[in-house]
Amino acid sequence: MEPLTASQRLTREAIVQTARIPEAALLHVNYANLLEGMLPCLSMTARIPEAALLHVNYANLVEGLLPFSVALDEAARCVVLAIRGSLSVEDCVTGAGVAALLALHYRGLFPRVRVWCFAPPGGLMSPAAAASLKDICYSLVSAKDMVPRMSLWTIERLRDEMMLCALRCKMPKLKLLLGAALGIDWEEGQVLTPPEELTDAQAGRYLDYRRAVEKERCMDPLRVRIAREFVPPGEIIWLERYKRIALHLRPHFTDGLSLIVGGVVVSRNMFLDHVPDNQLAQLKRLVRRLKQQRAVRSIALSTGNGADAAAAAAAVGSGRNWAGGVSADVPPQQQVMPERQHVVHFAA
Asked: Would the pTM count as exceeding 0.90?
């Protein structure tokens, strides 16, 4: 069987994602008139005239050639470059990252350039470069999505935390895995030994591990030490999910460094929140709720009902509010990359 071309592979992945079926269930796909048929499909999906699509590239190569399209938005009098991100596990998660890097390259030629990055990679650029894009680049991070939080620093931190948890774990691993599969919520005290109760041998093993890590870090080349501080681009719009109301999202404005210092959130949603279909559903729910809140505040302002009208006026007047009302307070900014935090401290 001949290998699939890039456009054929893209079509097959699109069918699997749209129909929500396993790829093995696709017994046969007719690729006749493939390119002629993909253009109208793209036009219908994007809800733009087919004539507005100036160029479409279907190639998808790991070496760096990504699927993208160039379209003309006559109403906004602008040209739109759309770069596809991850559609399957075989893709590189670079679509949003490439868009942000293009903004760095073209902002001098096109001062009005604006970039929207959906789930950009975490370790993309230096904090200074990311901050320079604050006014033209907006990165959307969905709840516990792991990709925008992944950098060399956060992966090293996660490794350290896993090593420490392995030392503290007092429950048989098979029992722990079976319990997780059955949906059992373990208390921390049931799974992990308290730090002060670790044996001298366990503490010694962790100290040996830390010394080995620090020794290796001392030999890191300069490029690795620089890359350790990389963050996602531009201004971050983080969609926080409420614990008690799973479908309730609240947007926060922050920066890449503040997002990175929180580390990777280990959860089943760390994968699910990166799925494009889930991101789109979350955005639609958020937009509906924001429209409802805006309508309520508009009514309060028009009727002039005392405290409600004053609160609505303050909310709508705040330049940092999202869509005219939702609070977007940001936790204190972190000025420097903090040293790696440890759960347990051992005496020498």
From this structure: no
